[in-house]
Amino acid sequence: MSARDLFVYCLIMATVTYLIRVLPLILINKKIENKFIQSFLHYMPYAVLSALVIPSIFISTGSYLSGVLGFVVAFAMSMRGRGLFTVAVFTCLFVFIVDSILCLI
Amino acid sequence: MQTNVDTIHSCKPQQYSFKNGIKDGMPIALGYLSVSFSFGILASSLGIPAFFSVLISMTNLTSAGQFAGIGLMVASASFVEMVLTQFVINIRYSLMSVSLSQKIDPSTTFLSKLAIAFFVTDEIFVVASNKENEISKKYMYGLGVLPLFAWSFGTFLGAISGDFLPATLCVSLGIALHAMFIAIVVPVAKKCKPVAIISVISVVISCVLNFTPVTCNISNGFVIIICAVLSSAIGALLFPISEKEESL
To answer: Least C-beta-crowded within 10 Å: which of A65, A71, B68, B108?
Structure first.
């Protein structure tokens, strides 16, 4: 791989990715009136998010066990109304402890 | 008197500031640090110089696309292949941009939109669209800046040294993003039954696609698109929102 090739690859990746992101944002300037599309867009973030979490959370850590337990902890904390940052930090710490213990066994 | 003034102020529709954005971006940055760290390690193990790994992270700000991208680079793939792969993996961002176009302050200028678009990632999109009111460009800049920094810095750390952090600590940071997503969706699902139902539908589709022999070969980007489109469409048909509910 020459430096020139790497530059071109990088340029292609960045350009394609950016165009995908920017075109809808600059082309759609009006409020969408259609009820179906409005509802669709309203629900989409939560659908994206749920699909991002499951099943990949279970393999996101050092072991299945810590992944599953991490999910339970994050879910329980969220049910009790804890904020994003608190949930993220505590879940990380918890998973770290579980995986450290598993390493010792 | 002071409390009266405060009450009056809090009745106005809240404009989210740069500072609000920074605060909301912190958990995203935390998660990005570990993912980009792995990206840096992988890139350097494939023989890509640290400078290029960081350049890729700074200009792309996307995980799946970058991992696939460096794979293609070392395989000396054609430029057309690179274009197509990036398109397929990242096309989901266009859905998110459509959604954001309805959410950002209508007075946002063309140039600001050009800048905001750069920050459209799964995580930043989800956090931004979860805000109750319209979002300003300042908020978006604040929300994007730490994740971008973390993404680039994590790549740098990973690229220069594979064993900079204890492995277990690095690995456990990987769950930060997932935990944050859960913290976003659960409170909304608790309040709003349709959101809970749509989330469950999306999870079911995601599991089916991931664990069925043939469909498990579908790229992650496409799995997300299929889940998002199907379950939101079902949701929109079953539970069309009324004007009143829109700010839920």
So the answer is: A65
Structure ipTM over 0.85, yes or no: no
Q: Which residues of B touch A3 (CB under 8 A)?
A: 52
pLDDT digits (tens, 9 = 90+) for B18-51: 999 999 999 899 888 878 887 888 788 788 899 9
- Residue of B67, B88, B202, B239 to mutate for A, most A C-beta atoms under 10 A: B202
- For B56, the closest of A3, A10, A26 (CB atoms) is A10
In terms of CA atoms, which chain B residue is nearest residue A22?
B117
pLDDT tens figures, B163-200: 555 666 667 777 877 887 898 889 889 989 999 999 99
Q: Would you call A34 exposed, middle or buried from its count of C-beta atoms within 10 A (0-12, 13-18, 19+)?
A: exposed
Indicate the domain borders of chain A: 1-30, 34-104
Q: Tell me how far apart the alpha carbons of residues A82 and B195 are, in angstroms, rounded to a whole number.
A: 19
